[in-house]
Prior knowledge:
Elements: E1 2-3, E2 7-10, E3 15-18, E4 29-33, E5 38-42, E6 45-46, E7 53-59, E8 62-68, E9 76-82, E10 88-102, E11 111-115, E12 120-123, E13 126-129, E14 133-138, E15 144-146, E16 150-152, E17 155-156, E18 159-162, E19 171-178, E20 185-194
Amino acid sequence: MNYEPExxxxxxxxxxxxxxxxxxxxxxxxxxxxxxxMILTIHRHVITRLARFSVSHDNAMTWLLHVSQVxxxxxxxxxxxxxxxxxxxxxxxxxxxxxPNILDEESTQSAVAVRENQxxxxxxxxxxxxxxxxxxxxxxxxxxxxDRRKKVTVYEGDxxxxxxxxxxxxxxxxxxxxxxxxxxxxxxxxxxxxCKY
Length: 197
């Protein structure tokens, strides 16, 4: 069994083509999704009921598996088998990447109010593949006070805790989700600090 490098696809791309084996002569070629234990095609016939899969060949030597409207469940190992004795096969991995998406229903609303000297936690949740990193920064470029002991320009983590907040910390905070799959996304949260006088 021969292994090939990963083939990449972005979620919802129009198509992904996997070419794993050149086949000698007039042999029967089958494509299998190993992780799902599913036979996809045998020779020129599509076996699976998923219409997103198709097969083609440009000559008797090269067979191509096409996956249209790529989904996350398409991620995994694919095997191309040729009916020789012994069987010839080659395996490749389709990596499906998903751009980050901020989950508004699990994140802090776009505007919050807090009394001066109180604590507040800003939450920003995101999904995607690979798992996105969450970074916070102030829109005005001012540093963020972390634990009242240190100041940072960028804070990493899905929860930003502001302790004993002061009026100088009011303003817009940006939550940025990134996972190396464009585009990065952001959410703007305005923090209003209510002063006693």
